[in-house]
Each structure stands twice: as structure tokens, then as C-alpha cells.
Amino acid sequence: MMVDGRHFRSIWVEGDGWTVGAIDQRRLPHEFVVAKLPTCEAAADAIRTMLVRGAPLIGATAAYGVALAMREDASDAALERACAMLIATRPTAINLKWALDEMRNALAPLSPPARTAAAYKRAGEIAEEDVAINQAIGRNGLGLIEAIAPRKKPGEAINILTHCNAGWLATVDWGTATAPVYLAHDHGLKIHVWVDETRPRNQGASLTAWELSHHGVAHTVIADNTGGHLMQVGLVDLVITGTDRVTANGDVCNKIGTYLKALAAHDNRVPFYVALPSPTIDFSIDDGRRIPIEQRAADEVATMTGRTAEGKIETVQIVPDGSPVANYAFDVTPARLVTGLITERGVLQADREALAGAFPGRAGKAE
How much is the pTM? Predict the structure, then answer.
């Protein structure tokens, strides 16, 4: 996608042919900074500290992390160390495990001298596959938006609500939830996006709004608790979110607060769709209550970072000294509240039969 007229992806290999470059998402929206990841340890730290975030991008970063490790030491022991280090960075996003399994399966049968080139090749393929999948998600989701257009009055925008950041910054390019939005905008449909701020890390306000602005998509940032009211008064035509993991039975694990949006959508008969690439499906789990829910540092809730009137970037405390803080990063939306899953193979029902039928190879491996 575009940043100030220049095409960017969220992650890439630098001109030297081996260093990995990535957009430092911790610095957005006030600073656009490119970070260079020269080692597997740097890639792991980028995932852990949320320099990169979003399930598909986490997977791609981990794949490149393995490639960086193989450049230093391509032994069997080094491959296992790299995978162990990377898998420990974030527990919820299943794409991380999927990408590491892909890398291990590609590299383990090879002799150590052949592994470095093969690792960069497979990591690059994972990144390209993500882009192609997201483009397909965009095409499949576009039809849902186009179906709303005839019901709108002349000049009236189609209003889409999204939560957190499931845009191109959370993937390699295009995004999941935003891919249909970008395609609809590029096809000339009048689109307006309600952007949840998404506390505690404000990925909506900081990242989704930033990328929509750079692509020219009309949007409005709202407090997280505003969505229900907007649905009640008819100002939301559909909800599209992303996800970090979908179980075999269609339960959806996503950024904390997604469940509340799904409940509000259900109560107000607003379609609630989840956009996801197939690597986000975890066929080994058939109940969302079994997904490990990451609990992150208290300071993400207790503090906020922003730009002052003087232009300085500062962090301030917003809770009283001594108040305990809980920071659950994700929640689970039961499949019964999901209107449909927008995948690269079409819009599917959120149930085991539909998922297994669309992705039989993935489902079969988990049995």
C-alpha cells in the first residue's frame, strides 16, 4: 500500500540481500521509522515488543527470523533454537506456529550448507503467499460491500465498523479486514470506516486511521464503546474485523473488545464478518475457550503515549498510583455471533463443516 506516494510493505529484505527491514509500528502515527533486523534475536524482539504485530505479519517475521538464524549457524541445533526462541514470543496468534512449522519442514531435510538460501526462499514465499491471500480476501469481501450499495441513498456512504488494526500493517500487504475496504474504495464506491480506537494500545487510532488516511479512505476515529450506539441508530451497515486465531468450529479470537462488538451487532441485526487467511485457522482446537489468552504488561493500560502540543512524544500515567491493572489482550467471539468468515476461498459459514470443506488439507493434518 502507499505511504506518501511510495509503495511499502510491512516487511522486506533489504538491498544487501539478507538484512530484514520492517516498519516500526510502535512509532506510528507520529513518526515513520524503518527498523532493520540483522539477527534472529532482533526478529524475536520485534515480535515480542510489537515493533511488528498482527497475526499474518508475526508469521512472516518469524519466517525471516529463521532465515537470519540460518545465516549465522545452519546446524540442526541452531534451527531448533531459533524456532524455540520465536515460538515463545507471542502465545495467541496461530500464524506464528504455522510459519515456524513451514520453515522447519522446509529446512530439516536439507544439509546445513543448503539451508540459508532455502530459508530466505521459503520466507519470501510465505510473504508473497500472504499478499496473494489478502488480495483474494479483498475480492471475496468486495461483494458484501457491493451488495449494500443499492440500498443507500444517492451520495450516501457505506458505513463499515472495524476493530483494532487488521490492515496492511498487520499483514505483509493489503490487510485482511481492510482488503475489501481498499478494493471498494478503488472501485469507486463511497466508503466510510468507523475506526475503534482500540485500547489499550490504540491500534485503531494509531495504525488503522493512519493507513486509511494515506490511502484516501474516509474514516472517523471513535471511542471503543461508541460502536453499539452507532449500530442502534443505523449508522453501521456491516462490521468487519480481523482475527488472531479461528478454531475448527468457527470461534474467533481477536483483540479484546471484539466480542462486545459482535454482541452489539447481533442485537441490532448488523452483519458481523471476520476476515482471515487460512493459516489463521487452528484445526487442532474445536472450542475457543481452549485458546491461550495473552496477558500483557500493566503499563499498556496504565499509561498512554502521544504527541504534546509542543510536538514531543511523551508517555503519561492515567491511573492512580497503586491501582492494580489487568491487561487481557484478546477475547473469543463464539461462532454463533459471526455472520461469515471472509477467506481466500470465499465467504464461509463459521462452522467446522464449511472450514474443513474449504481447506481439507489443513483440516486433515490436524486430525
Answer: 0.91
